[in-house]
Amino acid sequence: MSFGIYAVGFAILIAGLAYIAHLMRLPPHWIAAGAIVMVGLGILSAVKATRQKDSVN
């Protein structure tokens, strides 16, 4: 569940940043490239923050 909340939060962040970039009249291909990079960073940070520690037997 925590991963889902993280993912939704990052999606809102990415949408907001893309909208700001659009208002700044940046070219669409740069907006798309930035969004792709942000999606990757969001997945990496969400997995890092929500993964369970391995149990030691």
Give a quick precis of the structure.
The chain is an all-alpha fold and 57 residues long.
Write structural notes for this entry.
The chain has a domain at 17-48. The chain is elongated. Helix 1 packs antiparallel against helix 2. With 57 residues, the chain is mostly helical. 0% of the residues are buried. Helices cover 79% and strands 0% of the residues.
**Beta strands, count:** 0
Please trace the helix and strand order, writing H or E for each element: HH
Instruction: Give the low-confidence spans.
Output: none
Q: What is the mean predicted local confidence, pLDDT?
A: 91
Radius of gyration equals 15 Å
Helix content: over 70%
Subunit arrangement of the protein:
single chain
Helix/strand/pairing category? mainly alpha
How many H/I helices? Answer: 2
Distance between the termini: 26 Å
Q: How much strand content do the residues show?
A: under 5%
Q: What best-fitting shape do the alpha-carbon axes yield?
A: elongated
Describe the main β-sheet briefly.
none
Observed structural traits:
mainly alpha
Please write out the topology.
Layout: H1 2-23, H2 28-50
